[in-house]
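Q: Convert this sequence to structure tokens.
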Amino acid sequence: MSAEHAVVADVLVIIGTGAMGMSVARRMGAGRVIVLADVDEQLLTDVAEALITDGHRVLTKKVDVTSRESVAGLAAFAADAGRVLHVVHTAGLSPSQASAEAILAVDLLGVALVLDEFEQVIASGGSGVVIASMSAYIIPPPDAAIETQLATTLTDELLSLPACINALATGQLAYPFAKRANVIRVAAAAKSWGRRGARINSISPGIISTAMGRLELDSENGQMMRSMVKSSGSGRLGTPDDIGAAAELLLGPLAAFITGIDLLVDGGVIAALRTGGFEQAD
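A:
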């Protein structure tokens, strides 16, 4: 086949090698090049080998999502592999894993950098999903002025905002604040991604049985989390495939008119909290 008639591969980018990202990779990776990225090189290698064993075509790239240079390098790497059709950003830190400073750097700045850099390479007709969190719905929403700042401030200046500095001072609020900011940044990015003919949305998972989720269930907040699950309409923990299915929907053609939104996938926890249905776990 001549070079001018060579088929350009469709590329699925998965940032973060956790169970949610792997669910999306297995659901949507067949026939595509999966570009798998993570800061942990050994984990990256292990997960890539598992996907390759399953028959997927996988390329790997180490990335530090707190570094614009690193994220830009990943975006260029993905574009070199083919047509960047889907981007799924799952990388993040929880309160039991990291300090407030690290959470804001990875969970807030990292998301903003991914939105910036992949906007430059996403294909027309492409789409992206950012993993936020149900916790964004538990804290009071920011006032309009702060929301505007979180939406419009240049990415490299985000962590200098007074609201971010205040989130650092409050410690435990850093995580839900960062996730609320993710929802806002995704909404703001919808217009610029749209100019490229692409869509971008976020998903706010509830309490999911991932390594991170189980760590939080074993933390000092575990009893409260179990009460939330007990109170929910589903009455169970979520699975990585619950989130993978939601991501597949938002990334695919059935969601062609959906962009700039956050999809709450929590089994009914927030609905119970908002309507007085909360019960203490035994």
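Residues 174-194 form the longest helix (21 residues).
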